[in-house]
Write a structure and sequence with these properties.
This protein is α+β, with helices and mostly antiparallel strands. It has nine helices and eight strands. The chain folds into two domains: 2-143, no CATH class; 146-209, Orthogonal Bundle (Arc Repressor Mutant, subunit A), CATH 1.10.10. Helix 7 crosses helix 9 (191-209).
Length: 213
Amino acid sequence: MLIAEFRINSPLFRAALERTPGVTISVEEHYVAPEGIRMLLWAAGASGEQFRTALEADPTVADLKRLAEAPSRTMYRITTSDEGEASTTYREWFDLDIIPVDITATVEGWTGRLRFPNREALAQYRAALRNRGLKFHLQSLYRETGHANGTTASLTPNQREALITAYESGYFDVPRGASQPDVAAQLDIASQSVSERLRRGTKTLVETTLLDE
């Protein structure tokens, strides 16, 4: 698989970030809910109340909930508005089997790393963004060597944690010793997020251990 390091000019949360220019967002999870695309993210660099107020006024946000407080950061669950969904690339990730490795955003824009199954998927992704008026700046591209570095290196930390928790709780046993909601409760995340982490993690393990390059 290919790892692309990138920068993108998405307007998602741009208004909120411009009102709180010291904030850095780290995306923890994406998933589709009946209300729209939901994101779990950490915000650091400003008081939780200050950034919350900025998010409430952001046109790309339809709903938000503060989930957790830490000494230097706050976790939010955000549901995007129609304008916000048009600013995300989540559906392209899903359609093209793209796996986010790490995604961050500041007032300067969005940066991070994405895992692509092949160059064709990368080309299709860039074309999709271009058609929507979003500029994708590729900063580096390299091939991931999962066999040489160990297959767990191909997993994101969240996927690894979900797989290990599911295994230890008996989710993979026959008969099954734990349900998906049970695993979600242990990880303190939504059941949909568990499903996505397990599916993507399992897919990565199959590709890096059972299939030839």
